[in-house]
């Protein structure tokens, strides 16, 4: 199966729970599990090839000009992480099915989970660092959604926000680092970057790139001092913690360090930054974990500690350490996911995760006890479990590491970390399962059903099997992935027994020390409680609060909430910039002759000027102002006709009609007059600003019109090729639907979004305080006695078929004559609106079945599909084709694929205009507009019958 | 002719700017409509003025006006309708929610909230 398809499968799976949202938890879980399973199967089919040393790739050009390509690769490292992500994902999907309660929205949960899975899989299968960054950000976003899944819990929301802030900031730093890296290597493809080790390490930008990339990796993998977000992310549902915060997402940082290991590692900078950070994190987090009371918090800090361990191993920069790191990634994922699931089971069955309220569960929950104990002992590094093996390898590597000339510091600190690890692991087992049974558990504990414990049990079995038979169970995976990390073939020798050596002695010391520490637990707890430790959350909150205050301070200084002040400043700035630009430019004086002035345009110009002056003078009388808007719009349309722009004239005049109707409908609920509330001085000032702006803009237009083009215009190309390439004589229409079709596609989408925004605003207005206000609305003007007059009704009925035919005609001829989708859509809208005006909204609405939302959607889809159609002919998006068709009975006519696009424009315009007007009518209904049963108020035919 | 059009553009701009500096929402909406006219005419005028030469190809005709600004303005006209509709709706909503149609934001609404969740 193609790597691209494997990466796409979880995203496809993410759609299923949303589509099947009504079918319940089982269907959602099964559909997600199916997608995950197919992806896992596809991945596993590549195992033989990867074992043979091949790298499976799939390449698609996305934005080759930016170096961003959708390239995917599966090598040993990708295989290891892919198996972890999909394999544990499968177990989590099954576990979550039984963990979530009936009241939790399961469809949403599974959709987020699959989204995360896809993003994570994308990271590990990307062969392009820009593509990797896209997936990287997606994991931050989807984990934000998952942590905040229980929206009603404030800890969930705060934890989600903190995680997003910390990992998001790291992600930003990493983008910069990756761009530098790609720049040095000359390519953004990982395959090429891995070849460029010498160039990268010799570059003066090596250190900045390293720091920025490590910032991203450390925040993601919760390394000190960014470790604090992970424990707060534990507010997430336990399946999320088990998946994201033990097995996958927090390992993304490790993955990245492993991926770039061949090019970044081996330098002193790498060793001191990475190994030291890892060591500090390992020891510090393990120490904190000893004292946590919340089970999940204990596990969270232990995860941070183990991530530190792996980071340290990668930081050593030796091949043997890389092998140990890879092996510990596998082992940690198995035992830690099992432990999180165990904690989830305990929480689920007893109602608490507080260690102080637990104890004595070994007889009450024997199955959970067995699973939890095996996993915890593995975490402690006790033979013969898998955690022991990788811990031995770690200790051995630590004994070889020399820190600032000190040969034993690393080993001593690593042993200390292992000692703490033993302590909190044993504490987990001892204080939860052993001790006397209590009678004050929140719920009566008992083992859960098979569904809940099967997934952790499977992992516990793996923990034992890998421990007993490391070479056959995990050796091959460690071998291929370590070979991929180091770039040279590795043949690690994994075995339970390495003989009596230094690591074994250190291990034994850690075990004994840990047990002693556990015995001293109570006095130590008391001692630790007496000291005030810095709380990372408090520091984080203080920083966020300070940033919010600073932002508020600056905003407050920049704007005082007065829109007119801000707009005046804007207008003056524009004028000043314009003046400056003009004074520094080199205008040579008018080069184009003026067109002679004819008497008729002069009259039109005078009408426009007078209407505009009246507009300013009488704008307080709002209805009069609307009449003046109509006059101005009409004059603008006429000037378009005169100046050879028939398409514009048609569009302007039909937009004019719908705009005025819209403003009239709104005015129904707004005051009819504007009161004077600015002082004479302000008005004088505003008039001055307006005059200056007007003069400047007019002068600019004049200068442009009197000068020749500075550069040859691309319009010549369009005029020359309109027919040849687009098959149309109307160049404006061909530009819209063909040459610049992509712009038009964006524009109709914006128009549709605007209409949907209006609809959404209306929904809000109809509910709540404004809805109540509307229900008690008292109209401030008298109602007409004859609201649906006979003449208007009859005339609009007669006009309807005619205007629809005109609309159709304008649509069809658009490619070759003035017209097209925009104009036709507006004409049809006007025809429909006039029906609403004549007989009332509700009456008309009952007699038509068009859904305007669907119309907008259909429009955008029709335009999009027409564009995609070009792909099948092997041409870029929105290339058009045309041909001539001869049908019996009518003349030969032209069919262009652009017509499908224009149809989309048409539908979208009709839908958007009608939805906007429709929304305003709904407000009128709420305000007590009565529904008439007859099309007109006074019907003479009825009078006659009576 | 150029003088007429540029003076009209200047006049419409001045009226539009004056109206958007008013303190009530409806006047601002009217001002934006005026500004739309001015800007559409301005964009159109960058193709220079030509009479009796619409950009519709015909046999034997060699001179056409510049079609590109026309295509730009055509979509701008439709979009400005969408914009006017959204702004009117927002003005209406503010009036129904707040009880008056002032555009300025009272100080109390501007200050950042307490921050949490």
From TrEMBL, chain A:
How this chain sits in the membrane, per its record, is: Multi-pass membrane protein
Q: Name one GO biological process term.
A: monoatomic ion transport
Compartment(s):
Cell membrane; Membrane
- Boundaries of each NADH:quinone oxidoreductase/Mrp antiporter transmembrane domain copy? 126-418
**Keyword Ion transport recorded:** yes
Any one GO CC term of the record:
plasma membrane
Q: Name one GO molecular function term.
A: oxidoreductase activity
Q: What is its EC number?
A: 1.6.99.5
Q: Which residues form the NADH-Ubiquinone oxidoreductase (complex I) chain 5 N-terminal domain?
A: 65-105
- The superkingdom of the source organism is Bacteria
> Where would you find the membrane-spanning parts of this chain?
6-23, 35-56, 76-96, 108-125, 131-150, 162-185, 205-230, 242-264, 270-291, 298-316, 322-346, 367-388, 408-430, 450-476, 496-520, 566-582, 602-618, 623-643, 649-667, 687-705, 748-769, 790-812, 818-838, 850-875, 895-917
| Residue ranges annotated for the Na+/H+ antiporter MnhB subunit-related protein domain, each copy included | 792-914
| Keywords from the UniProt entry | Antiport, Cell membrane, Ion transport, Membrane, Oxidoreductase, Transmembrane, Transmembrane helix, Transport
Please explain the role this protein plays, according to its UniProt record: NDH-1 shuttles electrons from NADH, via FMN and iron-sulfur (Fe-S) centers, to quinones in the respiratory chain. The immediate electron acceptor for the enzyme in this species is believed to be ubiquinone. Couples the redox reaction to proton translocation (for every two electrons transferred, four hydrogen ions are translocated across the cytoplasmic membrane), and thus conserves the redox energy in a proton gradient.
In Swiss-Prot or TrEMBL terms, this protein is called Multisubunit potassium/proton antiporter, PhaB subunit / multisubunit potassium/proton antiporter, PhaA subunit
The species this protein was found in? Paracoccus denitrificans (strain Pd 1222)
Starting at the broadest rank, the lineage of the source organism is: Bacteria, Pseudomonadati, Pseudomonadota, Alphaproteobacteria, Rhodobacterales
From TrEMBL, chain B:
Does the record's keyword annotation contain Isomerase?
no
Residue stretches spanning the membrane:
6-21, 28-51, 71-96
- Could you tell me which Gene3D superfamilies the record lists for this protein? 1.10.287.3510
Q: Which GO terms describe its cellular component?
A: plasma membrane
Keyword Cell membrane listed: yes
Keyword annotations of the record? Cell membrane, Membrane, Transmembrane, Transmembrane helix
| Membrane topology of the entry | Multi-pass membrane protein
Location(s) in or outside the cell: Cell membrane
User: Sorted alphabetically, which InterPro entries does this protein's record hold?
Assistant: CPA3_antiporter_subunitC, NUOK/Mnh_C1-like
Q: Cross-referenced Pfam families, in alphabetical order?
A: Oxidored_q2 (PF00420)
Q: Which domain of life is it from?
A: Bacteria
Q: What is its main location?
A: membrane
Against NCBIfam families, the record matches this protein to:
PRK09094.1
The family line of this record is:
Belongs to the CPA3 antiporters (TC 2.A.63) subunit C family.
In Swiss-Prot or TrEMBL terms, this protein is called: Multisubunit potassium/proton antiporter, PhaC subunit
- Source organism: Paracoccus denitrificans (strain Pd 1222)
Q: What is the lineage of its organism?
A: Bacteria, Pseudomonadati, Pseudomonadota, Alphaproteobacteria, Rhodobacterales
